[in-house]
Predict the 3D structure of the following.
Amino acid sequence: MQAVILVGGLGTRLRPLTCNTPKPMLPVANRPFIDHVFSLLKRHGITEIILAIQYLSEAFEKFYGDGSQFGLELTYVHEKEPLGTAGAVKNVQQYLNGTFLVFNGDVLTDLDLTALIRFHTEKESKLTISLVPVEDPTAYGLVELDESRRVQRFLEKPRWEDVTSNLINAGTYVIEPDVFRYVPPAQFYMFERGLFPVLLQTGDPMFGFPSNAYWMDIGTPEKYLEVHHDLLMGKIGDNFPGQEIGPRVWMGEKTEVDPSARLMGPAIIGSKCLIEPGVKITGPVVIGNNCVVGADATIEDAVIWDNVRVGAQSALRNCVMAGNSEVGQGATIGGGTVIADNCSIGDGNKLEKGIRIWPGVSIPANAITF
Ligand code: GTP
């Protein structure tokens, strides 16, 4: 079976991390996020993958090429303008050869794809939506099913008294290509507001597949950090790069850790890093390749990409630092702060309260200290 992965979104909620990197290529546990999606597909025997690309499209092909080195057969289909989720699938129609899977390229899940596909076939469904339960149904668009699990209705953020379902769309579908006759070509068109209501009207069988699989998108900085927590805590099975040198602490090759540094997992440290004397790392933490953490710095609940320098005595907590950036000495970075790539944060600055620093910004020493 083929899978179409939608990877063309702008990722506006994750800016500035997505200014120079498309959301599905952001590093997650030191691998491009989409690699985790590829792993799931491969576990279920799916290697023929069509990537619907648009925003910063060259990043995918540059890294993965034709996919053969990764055990994949990749086809890239570019949209001139963003076509929305269903419009993007319509745009790849000519490459499809039968029933296929659609994935949002920003969702981490361990969904049983084999069971989903079997369910779709048994029900003779035209379009099957994977569903996950949520605690507060009033905050989401819900999907109401009948006893046979056929979709009856879509409810957008209902009041508590109108709640009849706690299931939301998890963004993974199994689809018969012929339903795309309802989707206009070369136009912006969405599954939720376009194709799904049309299929309810036409009476084409559309089913929901509820499961308690792990499910989380990386759509915001908070969720990006949360996905790291869950991966590192083992909530969803994964292999991490490097060797496990302590309880849930993985380290890459040629990384040097001073004996006086304390590493408390879960943590992943990339290769060719230098962790200087007195450093304290308290997981969940991910540090990329070629990073230097200066003496007596502390890092807790943070994700740091490749080629980052953290100055001596700095404290990083609950933050993301993108690649090729540096923080000077004695700085404090916390409270959900996001620092984009190629930034320089001078000595002594205190960045808190979810502040977002755009790519290439330099902040002089002691400029922000409130
Ligand atoms: P936000 O701007 O923060 O909402 O992010 P986004 O642009 O990624 O949108 P959203 O999170 O709703 O997208 C879900 C998935 O669909 C992501 O993997 C996107 O890359 C993808 N996607 C969204 N819109 C398009 C589109 O117009 N074309 C293609 N090819 N993919 C899309």
Q: What stands out?
A: The two ends are 56 Å apart (CA to CA). The chain has two domains: 2-220, 243-363. The chain has a mean pLDDT of 95. The pocket of guanosine-5'-triphosphate is lined by residues 6-14, 23-24, 52, 54, 79, 82-85, 88, 104-106, 219 (CB under 6 Å).
